[in-house]
C-alpha cells in the first residue's frame, strides 16, 4: 500500500496492491458494495458513475474482452467511454442478474445509495486496519479508483490510455493526482513534454 497526504484536507489517499484490493473485496459482505468496489478498483469509476452503471452496460466485445460502458453526465461533463473490467468480475455481475428473476438488464448494478456504499467501504477499512495495516482506516471508494489507475500505470499501460479509461481529459490534473507519490513502481518515468504534445 502506498499512502500520500491530501493537498488541502486531512487524511490520506491510498493506492492498494493487487492483494490488498482483493482483500477489501473478500471482506465486503453486501453484494452491492462488492460490485461497487469492483467498479471502483478494477474499472476506475467515480462514485457518481458507479451509481449509473446498469447490468446491460457490461458487455463482451467481439475480441473477447469485457468492458463497462460509462455515461458521464454531470456538472463536469457529458461524455461516453468504455473501460475494461476483468472477465471473472464481468461474468459474476452478469450471472447475478441473469440468475435473479427480480433483476432486469436495465437495473442498476449497485442499487444501494452511494452513501451506504461509502459506509461499507469505510467499515471494511476499519476492520482491516485492526488486522492488517493501520492505513486501511483511511480507505474510501476513491482509493479504489486510484488503485485501478496506478495498477494500470505500474503494468506499463500508456498514460493516455489510462486517462481515456478513467475519464480524465486534463493531463495536469491526471499527472498531479496520480503520477506523484502513489505509483508502486518507483522507477516509473513520465515524459511530461511528450504527453502534452499528444494531448
Automatic annotation (TrEMBL):
PROSITE patterns linked: TYR_RECOMBINASE
Residues spanning the membrane: none
Superkingdom of the organism of origin: Archaea
Residue span(s) of domain Tyr recombinase: 11-195
BP GO annotations: DNA integration; DNA recombination
InterPro entries found in the cross-reference section: DNA_brk_join_enz (IPR011010), Integrase-like_cat_sf (IPR013762), Integrase_catalytic (IPR002104)
Alphabetized UniProt keyword annotations: DNA recombination
GO molecular function: DNA binding
Protein name: Phage integrase family protein
